[in-house]
Amino acid sequence: MKFIRPLVVLLILITVLCIGWVWWASPSKTDMAQYVPADAIMYLEFNSLPNVAKAIQQSDAWKATSAITGTQPSEDSRITSFAALAGIGPTAGVIFTRAQVALAVIRLNQTEEDNTLKIKPDVALIVETHTSKWRNKAFAVDAVKRLASMAYGQSTCTERSAGADFVECSIPGGDRKVIGAVDGSLVVIGNSDQAVQSVLEVRRGARPSMRTDPELEKVRRSVTQPESLGFGYISQTNSAKLFSWAAPLMMGRGPGDQQLEQLLASSAAKILRGVAWTALPSKGGIEDRFQISFDQGFVERLQPAFDSTAPDEKFWQLVPNTTQSLTIYQSKQPATAWSSLDSAVSFKLEAVPAVLFGSILRSSLAVYGIEKPKEVLTSLAPPLVTLKPSPASESSILIARVANSEQLRRSLTSEIFKENRGQIYEGLSYTLKSEKEFSAVLFDGYIILGKTDSVQSCLDSLNRSQAVTNDPNSILRSAASENSAAVVTFSNDEARLNSFMTMLLSLEKKRLTAEQDSELQKRLRKVAYSVTETRLNDGGIERRTHSNFGQFSTLMSLLQSGSSNSIAH
Predict the structure, then answer these.
(1) Residue 334: CA atoms inside 13 Å, Cβ hemisphere, count?
(2) For residues 207 and 372, what is the distance between their CA atoms, to the nearest angstrom?
(3) Digit-coded pLDDT (tens) for 481-503
(4) Cys-Cys with 438: which of 87, 265, 310, 422 at CB 3.0–4.6 Å?
(5) Separation CA 410–CA 402 (nearest Å)
(6) For the chain, how long is the longest CA-to-CA vector?
């Protein structure tokens, strides 16, 4: 008995020492914004990789395919996790458990070749490993080599030291490369020397960090929650800049007009207040939340566009079950909703910018042949539905309930079908004249409108009895019936899910048989749709997207392509 008391005391002492060691050795969280240049265009942070992995493993797609891929959820014990957090265990496990990660788009490089504008972003992946350099260097070098091999295929890698330890992998005879730098516990991986050097300069105090942005912390506190998996931020200035680059394309103009871009950027800055993102675990997947903040007066004038009506189920008879994406606009009065958008823009901008922004708004309906929205929308009633009817369709079509048939016919005849550009039919059993640019089909109180080839694709599916209403297992219809948002979007995520799973299998060096791959596609198809709700709140527009892997699958898919984006004039 006299030996039991000292033994108990010893065990208690060992337990206290172990807990104390874990507490002392566990890293304190770092604000990753302190490593990112203040003028970076986009900033993302992920403070717990294990939490991200857990959320992915709890998704419907992961569970449905785990038996095929062999990617069963991790069963690591708490003891193992505590050990890794304290720096004990294999290097890969320790870094994965302790690391914080940030992704920054440092700048966008634009070059013009043969009337084509090429845009190549300088991107930096920043990892605070909270692990000493002697331990993380070999791991970082191996990660850079594997990343280069995954993105570019066969590549040549060299190492050097110059203030930090560098490894550079590139394709012989090409300008694409991956560069890694190890500086103490920090690992920086970029696609250009400038991207990596800019982060190292911030770390050494040679240039300001994004942490100096007074809005960053305010926005982060407002959108993140304790269970958030990540956070993203685009400042007001950069939001306006990105808009000025994209807007000319919506207007049908070639990019590269600096005077136009400057006007659009300065005008957009009067309306936009920045963009924020966070991701949260959600039942069967991940919910991405985007907050697009606007000037308060602008938000107030947008309200009529978000006054929604009760869902209409009848239009589903015109939606093919081959639909790839679909958006339902449930505004009570489409014409009033459109006028509110126009009014909000005119309220904040002077005459010339207001005209430009009006052109951008009208361009969103020009793809359906609608050049004068107010005249056409007054003859329509909710819901207005835009959809891509099949994977082969090059453009979307518009489906809407007809409120005034005679007025609509007059608008179609005088506007869309002028100069013999279009054709109008009643009923679904027609083969449209392919030489006509636009087509309108009236059926059962609704109109199908758009480019002729896309409308024909829709008709072909419907004539084969492939409407959503004929599919008892339709994910689209059941999800829409439960949603009251003013704008609801459904997207087929099959390609993105497949890309993500292929990437994971590649990382684990696994190969599926033809039979396994076929079964994988079949199972992913059943859980492939993502749902996005768009609502107006006090700060602006909030978009919530529920999908299997969230934006993490998009970020991973970027690793599979090292090419820059090209935009033809």
Answers:
(1) 22
(2) 50
(3) 667 788 999 988 888 888 888 87
(4) 422
(5) 13
(6) 106
